[in-house]
Amino acid sequence: MRVLAVDAPRELALCVDAQGRHHRVDTGIAGPVAPDDILLVHAGAAQLREPG
Amino acid sequence: MRFVQEFRDAGLGRALAGEILALVEPGRTYKLMEVCGGHTHSIYRYGIDGLLPDGVELVHGPGCPVCVLPMGRVDDGIAIAHEPDGIFTGSGDMLRVPGSRGSLLETKAQGADVRIVYSPLDALGIARLHPDREVVFFAIGFETTAPSTALTLKRAKAEGIANFSCICNHVTIVPPLRALLESPDLRLDGFIGPGHVSSIVGARPFQFIPADYKRPLVISGFEPLDVLQSIHMLLAQLAGGRCEVENQYRRVVPWEGNPRALEVMAEVFELRPHFEWRGLGFISHSGLKLSAAYAELDAERRFAIPGVRVADPKACQCGEVLKGVIKPWECKVFGTACTPERPIGTCMVSPEGACAAYYSYGRYAQERELV
């Protein structure tokens, strides 16, 4: 999923998947993320971050 | 799309298939188990089995979390879903799994407030919106999805959301693999290891397989070239007399796993003494429950549940499919009484289930002709 917006204090990100659907993602495991980063997400939690 | 298209190159796939053929010893048969349901799906979606030499057989393992959930746990969820003024949440696949008296979706049709959610985080959002109602999340999955549940429970506790709880059905992958290796009716030559689970636990937990059982394991990605390369790596080990854990999916799986995810899981969960698996029976230390620190968010403590073991329907052979003893098309009800629209067994419910993969990608007709 690609990061669209970040709520850093709450460790949340708004992301879009390959089908264009938007999801709220917990970034507590992946660490700080930024818009345009690509995240590997399972069940709503980002596990891996690839810088955008 | 990055990280996807480059692993679907047909020319490279054909070249890898040729190299796999070159590694096969004439007259020898190789049984390789793909542990994860995601691999089963990829194999049949991309026709990978059709690229393999006759002597190489792929056996489907127990790595689909929906498929291994016993009926009794579904009944426990249904009992909670009938609680007045409650909201019961879970993944779409999970809600379709039949219990002894119907599924959670059928419970919804009878009037219970049962909702499909994308994640536990979304279930927690529902709890925030409805502070006067009990919101329960039905958590399933291996170590892949357990960190997400753990993070959400930590969030619920930190925010003091008292009307949220979780019925935990998370399981761990190593105990069932050991149970399979101890099974006398299954001879395997190697394992295609679970890529997503390994992104959390790393490669180290699988080292008992070569050490104790003298079988190689290659942790694999899910694109067609990933799976073909992993099969090539397994056959190369067997041809060279080697037996070890290798990591084909290095772009995602660190050898040591994900320390932050493991730390969160260790805080929120603890191992159950026993947990029942469909087809495999009770396996020691294979299931997770909420730790004492999170007991107030445990739906099994908050609500009365039957907790009764329920035998699978006699016609259903999911257990044998999950152990790789039979192929899906060998089940008596496959494609007739049991279809994705009206599943009897769990392997037909989830897209990652072996029966659903066979059915969806046309292996029904092809394999029947072979019979």
Tell me what the structure shows.
The complex is a heterodimer of chains A (52) and B (371). Chain A is mainly β and 52 residues long. In chain A, 0% of the residues lie in helices and 52% in strands. Chain A has strands at residues 2-7, 12-16, 22-26, 38-42, 45-50. In chain A, strands 1-2-3 form a 3-stranded antiparallel sheet, with no helix packed on it. Chain A starts with a strand and ends with a strand. The model of chain A has no long low-confidence stretch (mean pLDDT 95). Chain B has 371 residues and is an alpha/beta fold. Chain B folds into 3 domains: 24-53 and 181-247, Rossmann fold, CATH 3.40.50.11750; 71-173 and 257-302, Rossmann fold; 318-370, no CATH class. Chain B has helices spanning 10-23, 37-45, 71-81, 92-95, 104-109, 120-129, 146-159, 174-182, 195-201, 208-213, 224-239, 259-268, 299-302, 318-322, 354-360, 363-370; strands at 30-36, 56-63, 86-90, 114-116, 134-141, 164-170, 190-193, 217-219, 245-247, 269-271, 274-277, 281-284, 288-290. Chain B has a 5-stranded parallel sheet with strand order 2-1-7-8-9. In chain B, strands 4-3-5-6 form a 4-stranded parallel sheet, with helices on both faces. In chain B, strands 10-13 form a two-stranded antiparallel ribbon. In chain B, strand 11 and strand 12 (281-284) form a beta hairpin. The two termini of chain B are 40 Å apart. The A-B interface holds A 18, 23-26, 28-29, 31, 38, 40, 42-45, 47-48, 50 and B 1-3, 91, 118-122, 125, 141, 144-145, 147-149, 151-152, 154-155, 196, 199-200, 252, 258, 260-261, 264.
Short descriptors:
heterodimer, A: 52 residues, mainly beta, 0% helix, globular, B: alpha/beta, five-stranded parallel beta sheet, four-stranded parallel beta sheet, 38% helix
**Sheet with the most strands of chain B?**
5 strands, parallel
* Helix fraction bin of chain A: under 10%
Please, what is the oligomeric state?
A: heterodimer
Number of strands of chain A: 5
Instruction: Give the averaged pLDDT of chain B, no decimals.
Output: 92
* Discrete helix count of chain B: 16
The strands making up the biggest β-sheet of chain B line up spatially as 2-1-7-8-9
Mean pLDDT of chain A: 95
Radius of gyration of chain B: 21 Å
Number of helices, where a helix is a run of at least 4 consecutive DSSP H or I residues of chain A: 0
Give helix and strand order of chain A, one letter per element, not per position.
EEEEE
Q: What percent of residues of chain B are in strands?
A: 15-25%
Spatial gap, N to C terminus of chain B: 40 Å
Biggest interface and its residues per chain? Answer: A-B, 17 and 28 residues
Residue runs with pLDDT of under 50 for 5 or more positions of chain A: none
